[in-house]
Each structure stands twice: as C-alpha cells, then as structure tokens.
Amino acid sequence: MPYIAIVVAVLAIALEQLLQVRYGVMGVVAFVALAIGIKARNSMIGGIGAVILVMLLAQSG
User: Which parts of the chain span the membrane according to its record (predicted)?
Assistant: First the structure.
C-alpha cells in the first residue's frame, strides 16, 4: 500500500510540473481546482478547473 501512495505522489508531482512548464501558472491553478473539486465532491470547483484546463488545451492546439 505505501508503494502505491508513493507512485501516485510522484505521478501527481510530474503532472504538475508538466502543466507548469507547458501551460504556466493557470495550468497549475486549474489542476489544483480540479483536484480539490474531485476530493471535496464539489462539482462547481471541479467544473471550473476542468473548464480552465480545456480552454488552455484548446488554445495551444
């Protein structure tokens, strides 16, 4: 079980760094909002994070 937690933490940090390099601060803010919304089961915050991520992805494409 501890190994799974370590792997998940490493993946989360890697994803955050990738978002920051590629999409800047707004990418990290959107990812954090999405993660908080999912953990807190708050659809408004999660939706805001998802919309920001989609807008950033659409802008770079």
Answer: 30-58
